[in-house]
From TrEMBL:
PANTHER family: GLYCOSYLTRANSFERASE, GLYCOSYLTRANSFERASE EPSF-RELATED
InterPro entries registered for this protein in UniProt: Glyco_trans_1 (IPR001296)
Pfam family, one: Glycos_transf_1
Residue ranges annotated for the Glycosyl transferase family domain, each copy included: 2-140
Database matches in SUPFAM superfamilies: UDP-Glycosyltransferase/glycogen phosphorylase
Name of the protein in question: Glycosyl transferase family 1 domain-containing protein
Entry GO MF terms: glycosyltransferase activity
GO biological process: carbohydrate derivative metabolic process
Native species: Methylocaldum marinum
Length: 175
């Protein structure tokens, strides 16, 4: 999160209509350090909302124009999938396995560095609203196609059928 706050200090005054909301639990116990960093950087448009769930999380996602996950390591990054499913384009660092956001043109998959994040955020924040919405729509479509219950059930059925009866290897299985 410190990389995001450091990047934001270069951008918040350039984009007066944008604000940064940081949501989530205080994993690792360093939330107070991040609040102190935001204060030291004199960031005026940052809000720490803590953990949110249910309807509150849904409302935050629906009101968001962009989701950012700067991470050293995530095994999946469920919050990325949630943002995409709500039609929010994403910026995700390469510590999370979300390289396909670029294939689906619904976000950016970038190296984890302050400079790279500044450049990516600068480009994203300068985009027209409609372009960001189109990216979000593509992400939502991708999530429905790949991760909806009906999609998962169909893949399970086809996988078990392949295991029992043979035939062509399903595309989602890597051997």
């Amino acid at each position: 999160m410190d990389i995001l706050l450091n990047a934001w200090r270069y951008l918040e005054n350039r984009y007066p209509n944008w604000e940064l909301t940081i949501a989530g639990p205080d994993d690792g116990g360093y939330l107070s350090d991040m609040k102190q960093l935001a204060s030291a950087l004199q960031l005026g448009k940052v809000e720490f909302v803590g953990p949110i769930y249910g309807k509150q999380k849904e409302n935050l996602l629906l009101s968001s124009d962009l989701y950012v996950l700067p991470t050293h390591s995530e095994n999946f990054g469920m919050t990325v999938a949630e943002a995409l499913a709500h039609g929010v384009p994403v910026i995700v660092t390469k510590g999370a396995p979300w390289q396909r956001v670029e294939d689906y043109r619904c976000g950016w998959w970038i190296d984890l560095s302050e400079e790279t994040l500044i450049t990516c955020l600068d480009n994203a924040l300068a985009m027209e609203d409609q372009e960001l919405r189109s990216m979000g729509d593509r992400g939502k479509t991708w999530m429905l196609q790949q991760f909806s219950w009906s999609s998962v059930a169909e893949k399970m059925e086809r996988t078990y059928s392949w295991l029992l009866e043979g035939g062509e290897l399903p595309a989602w299985i890597d051997l």
